[in-house]
Design brief:
The complex is a heterodimer of chains A (258) and B (354). Chain A is an alpha/beta fold and 258 residues long. Chain A has ten helices and ten strands. In chain A, strand 7, helix 7 and strand 8 form a beta-alpha-beta unit. Chain B has two domains: 96 residues, no CATH class; 215 residues, MetI-like fold. In chain B, helix 6 packs antiparallel against helix 11. The longest helix of chain B has 35 residues. The chains are: A alpha/beta (258), B mainly alpha (354).
Chain lengths: 258, 354
């Protein structure tokens, strides 16, 4: 069910401040695309426009089009809530719901939306936890609180929660920055498996991670402090990291700035 | 005290070591100060033991500073002074509370028994011992219960609006008025209900009228404490829920509120404990009664604060005893509410067990 994303002319504001300007790109279904760039260049802002979370922030406003297969997410009359059910998100810091058990956390997307049958829930939870490589570690303690797991396990729990609702696209905003190297590796392996089923977009500060995990990479940059972020280059990951077309990209990946 | 075993080969060690007072020094100084205080007070003909105590306290502060300075040095002396002052302030704060509890328990227990708790004053001659406070207890429970039923939902929803939705001028106006309401004197709340409900609308004195005044007093407290609890829920949780495609109202209902329910319940119970003892609006509105009136909507009722006031006004020993017993019941009621509030907060706190 993975879908293709087509962005054209996307500009996002915080109030009157323009954060990103005129971004256009395509993300193929069942692939992993990485967004890299220096701090503050708008990668996370752009990511959040893809599932209409940008407007949740006070003053957040978007112009432009985001096409999911052939539907414009920003067409008038489109309900942001239903957009977010098809485009899921995993955040930088693991955020399992503290009052719910592991089982309830994974099932939260279905339970809180009301449309489920109890018999289905068990199967969905098992399938999602297996999909997130967490099943074997928690299958005996599904009723324990979600907050009692380690950092890496919590993040995998959040991934299981996100994929339980079977989204078409999975957005990941620096999912490994708060984790240790072993957990990071586990999640990178997981991303490799998940891309068979979902379109994945991942924002990362870690260039080696982008090189390991993604099929295509997009480099964002700012013209200067206070200027809006722009998409500088997007290409096959191998080409970006070995022979980029734009000098700024070359400078960034060789560490001349960042 | 100081090390006397040496010779000049370890001068560096003694720069770090210091003389120290023995551990019984504070108690010894306290004993000296108390003895001196009593002596000076009695000698100067001051009759009030409180004054003797104050002299003793002052002497203790001066003595402990002086002795510590002489033996241990200036920095230790200042440290000791600060410690002593903090402890003294603590004791000064505790003494009235302890004395209040002691008095109430002492005097209340003479008449407090199961009979007192289960009978009213109907038909009892007030000069004689006998009778009880059941009608007052029932009145308090009903009035406080109705006030909670009115104020808690309104306060909770107002706080949800202020934290989750309010952005513009309406939210600012609401916050302002809630702040003003926190400061309303209880008698003014009582007067408002008196003029509006009883005089203008023509209803009778009743427990319900008292409950409405109590609700007015309770509402801003619930709004404030619920607001604080809701603000403590991290935004990440709301975002996680929104990103799953859960609509905002459901996010609030199923994620934000359950996470903060422990704190909210505590806040509500503390607000209840606060209004349970408000006597001014009750005196104006429930009219008082000697008999049991289980219907809060019709006819006069009594309540514990009213009963205490009424018995005190009667001026005889039997009534005073009853007043003390009722005061003890009221304090116990408030204490139980506090303990229950703490229990609920602990039980409902987000768990991190493994």
């Amino acid at each position: 069910m993975a879908k293709r994303i087509d962005v054209s002319g996307l500009t996002a504001y915080y109030g009157s401040h323009k954060a990103i300007e005129d971004i256009s790109m395509t993300v193929e279904p069942r692939s992993v695309t990485a967004f890299i760039g220096p701090s503050g260049c708008g990668k996370s802002t752009f990511l959040r426009t893809l599932n209409r979370m940008h407007e949740v922030t006070t003053g957040g406003r978007v112009e432009g089009k985001v096409m999911l297969d052939d539907e414009n997410l920003y067409a008038s009359g489109v309900d942001p809530v239903s957009v977010r059910r098809t485009v899921g998100m995993v955040f930088q810091r693991p955020n399992p719901f503290p009052t719910m058990s592991i089982f309830e956390n994974v099932a939260a997307g279905l339970k809180l939306n009301g449309s489920y049958r109890k018999s289905e829930l068990r199967d969905v939870v098992e399938k999602s936890l297996k999909g997130a490589n967490l099943w074997n570690e928690v299958k005996d303690r599904l009723n324990k609180p979600g907050a009692g797991l380690s950092g890496g396990q919590q993040q995998r729990l959040c991934i299981a929660r996100a994929i339980a609702v079977e989204p078409d696209v999975l957005l990941m905003d620096e999912p490994c920055s708060a984790l240790d190297p072993i957990s990071t590796l586990a999640i990178e392996d997981l991303i490799g498996e998940l891309k068979e089923r979902f379109t994945i977009v991942i924002v990362t500060h870690n260039m080696q991670q982008a090189a390991r995990v993604s099929d295509r990479t997009a480099f964002f940059n700012l013209a200067g402090v206070g200027q809006p972020g722009k998409l500088i280059e997007i290409d096959e990951t191998e080409r970006i990291f070995s022979n980029p077309s734009v000098q700024a990209t070359e400078d960034y990946i060789s560490g001349r700035f960042g | 005290m100081s090390d006397t075993t040496t010779d000049t080969t370890t001068p560096r060690a003694s720069a770090l070591q210091q003389a120290r007072l023995p551990r019984w020094a504070p108690l010894g100084l306290a004993a000296v100060a108390i003895a001196a205080g009593v002596g000076i007070g009695a000698g100067a003909g001051l009759g009030n033991t409180t004054q003797w105590g104050l002299i003793a306290a002052l002497l203790f502060v001066v003595l402990s500073y002086g002795v510590t300075a002489a033996v241990e040095g200036g920095r230790q002396a200042r440290n000791q002074l600060a410690t002593v002052l903090v402890w003294l302030c603590f004791l000064i704060a505790i003494v009235p509370l302890a004395s209040l509890l002691w008095e109430t328990i002492n005097r209340g227990k003479t008449v407090l028994d199961v009979y007192f708790l289960s009978h009213s004053m109907d038909g009892v001659q007030t000069i004689l011992p006998g009778g009880g406070a059941y009608h007052a207890i029932l009145g308090t429970l009903e009035q406080v219960g109705i006030a909670t039923l009115i104020a808690a939902p309104i306060g909770l929803l107002t706080a949800v609006y202020l934290v989750e939705y309010g952005r513009g001028r309406l939210a600012k106006a609401v916050t302002f008025f809630v702040d003003v309401m926190t400061g309303i004197p209880s008698i003014v709340a009582g007067l408002f209900i008196l003029s509006f409900w009883i005089i203008i609308l023509g209803f009778d004195y009743s427990g319900f009228a008292g409950a409405m005044a109590l609700a007015i007093l309770m509402m801003p407290v619930v709004v404030r404490s619920t607001e604080e609890m809701l603000k403590l829920v991290p935004d990440e949780l709301r975002e996680a829920s929104l990103a799953l495609g859960v609509p905002k109202w459901r996010t609030i209902l199923k994620v934000v509120l359950p996470t903060s329910i422990g704190g909210i319940t505590t806040g509500v119970m503390l607000a209840v404990a606060r209004i349970a003892g408000e006597s001014a609006p009750i005196v104006l509105l429930v009219f008082g009664s000697q008999a049991i009136n289980p219907n809060p909507f019709e006819g006069a009722q009594s309540s514990l604060p009213y009963y205490i006031y009424e018995q005190w006004q009667l001026g005889n020993e039997a009534s005073f005893n009853r007043a003390w017993a009722a005061a003890l019941v009221l304090i116990a009621f408030v204490m139980i509410l506090n303990l229950v509030a703490r229990g609920i907060a602990r039980w409902k706190a987000p768990k991190s067990g493994r």
